[in-house]
Amino acid sequence: MGGFYLCRVTEGDADDARIAAAEAQFRLHGFTRFTPIRSAAHAGFHAAPIHGSHVCVHRDGEDFIAVAGTLIHGGKFGEAALRALLGDFRFPFEDWSNTTGQFAAIIHKGGRTFAFTDFFGAFQLFHDADWDVVSTSFLAAAKSLDRVTFDPQGVYEFAFNVFPTGDDTVVSELKRLGPDAQMELGANTVRVTVSKPLPERISSTPMEKRIAAQAERLRGAARIYAEAFGDRMQCPLSGGLDSRLALALLRDAGVSPQVYVYGSAGDGDVEVARHIADHEHFRFEPFEKSAFASITPDDFPAIVARNFHETDALVTDGGLFDNGGNAFARHQRQEGGQLAVSGGCGEVFRNFFYLPDRALTARQVMGAFFARYTLNDVTDTFDPEGFIDRLEAKALKAIEKPGATGKLRRTLIEQLYPRMRCRAFFGREISLVGRQGAYFMPFFDHEVVAGALQLPIAWKNAGRFEAALLTHIDPVLAAYPSDYGYSFDRPPTLSHRMNELGTRVRPPWLRQRSYAVRRRLGPIRDEHGGLLTPAFLGRVLDLHFPHMQQFFKMKAVSDSGLYRRIATLEYLAQHLERQIA
Question: Are 282 and 276 in contact (CB under 8 A)?
């Protein structure tokens, strides 16, 4: 749903030059339609969604609201939601009972200007320390600064875990606006801290009532999008639970979306999806990204440059060093103003961290899940204790328990999935897909999350609750086979339960060492692939990695996903070389 850029108004033409440079960057992102916006202290523009799904700027006299992302307010979508939120808005904005979606917003009302994000701070809004620059574009914000330096914590989190957690970015001078803060952008920037509590106790409500309540929440959200888009939707379908539950919601709302799956013939996801589509007569498209085009090294630089700008430099999958298949698929999902639907965050209904049902410290959780490194890959810049220290501090801040010591009850640990993991990982995806058009991620809704946090862990293990929820909403879809070896209207198999148990019973100290042990057994390849051979990669960056060699020992890296993400950072460094200290 577009993007925006603001910079502080200055004497002379410094702000005009910044705005012109930012607009040029937004055009490289793919935006073509711009609306100037101005407040007493800042000026800039809003960029309409690349595929024009709906209106996302609304004015009422001198007041205006400009949104990037997907906003629902008062059960309304599009311009009606903007109008309603502008009328209802009071600073700080604290009543989230009527507001959902993932978005970043600028509101100018009564001569004052405010910036805030969605409940979880998922849609990424970048800013410098003094809020002289505010943008949904990382590259536009970074290029507005005279100097940037790579932040070791951000660099290592991006490399090890796909995207930095908390408010960090990969450069020290830019942060992201968190869910705990809202800003007034005036001559002096005012930060107001807001609390967004989530349930900390297991509910005693019977399972049947929980299922019915969650189904109604999800159905209510799906109906809003069904009214706005009808069948103009693209929905994934795989062999797992989350995408099937998302599809069930759309069918329940009377929608017949285009259904797609990524992968090659013979893959479990592809064959399960094809089987369901054949029997249910969906509009169905399997798409193999790696087979999209056969390219030569001479073709590679132009494709990578386009990918780099379209994904705002920091893509979370294999979409930078590829053959163009990721970009093609991304645009196809929203071409002509279609709604993109995702099953992302569906693991809020499951035991995502595969941890035992007992209290643990935040440090134990961070080590068990985020310590995906081996010291053989890193230079002396990396401080393993400090790395976990900072993750621990961000985890406690995320669950609104900063400085807490001792063990956390299990429901608080579960909050780390939506508040920390989803915000970092899906937040980046949301921010990239959301610039093209509207995006519906039903399971990353704060009320849905609140209900899921009250589930006993036993109901989350092996997806029991989510499978029952799917069966309640669409028993026909639930009855089809899955890639897990059973249909979701049946109990999980012993082999599936034992597979999960094998991870849950490993103590956190052993989990923390698992990645390093796995690396000793040989190279690791991930599903995103990429054209990473010297013949291709050497055409777009210096394979001596002059910028990243301060952080990594590149000759030791034998994990293709890690190598690709480090290469992504090196390519970014080349692009920002003029500003890098």
Answer: yes
pLDDT tens-digit series, residues 68-106? 999 999 999 999 999 999 999 999 999 999 999 999 999
> How many angstroms separate the CA atoms of 328 and 156, rounded?
30
Which residues make Cβ contacts (< 8 Å) with residue 73, sequence separation at least 6? Answer: 81, 82, 84, 85, 88, 98, 99
Give the residues across from 271 on adjacent strands: none
- CB–CB of 274/282 below 8 Å? no
- Per the listing, tokens 């930012």 go with 22
Q: What is the pLDDT of residues 266-304, one digit of tens each?
A: 999 999 999 999 999 999 999 999 889 999 999 999 999
What is d(CA 142, CA 289) in angstroms, rounded to the nearest whole number?
Answer: 30
242-258 per-position pLDDT tens digit: 999 999 999 999 999 99
Fill in the DSSP letter of residue 476. H
| Residues contacting 577, CB < 8 A, separation 6+ | none
| Total residues belonging to the chain | 581
Alpha carbon distance 287, 267 (integer Å): 12
SS3 state of residue 449 = helix
- Helices H, strands E: what count in the chain? 21, 18
Alpha helices in 399-504 (DSSP H): 410-416, 423-433, 446-453, 457-460, 464-473, 475-478, 494-504
Q: Which long-range contacts (CB under 8 A, 24 or more apart) does 354-358 make?
A: 354/500, 354/503, 354/504, 355/413, 355/504, 355/508, 356/504, 356/505, 357/410, 357/456, 357/457, 357/458, 358/410
3-state secondary structure 382-402: CCHHHHHHHHHHHHHHHCCCC
Q: Is the pLDDT of residue 470 over 70?
A: yes
**Which conformational region is residue 194 in: left (phi greater than 0), alpha (psi within -120 to 50 degrees), or beta?**
beta
pTM for this entry: 0.96
CA–CA distance, 511 with 5 (Å, rounded to integer) = 42
Calculate helix-pair angle for 560-575, 300-310, nearest 10 degrees.
80
Q: Please give the Cα distance from 108 to 60 (Å, whole number).
A: 10
Q: With H, G, I as helix, E, B as strand and everything else as coil, classify residue 439.
A: strand
For residue 553, which phi and psi values (nearest 5 degrees)?
-95, 90
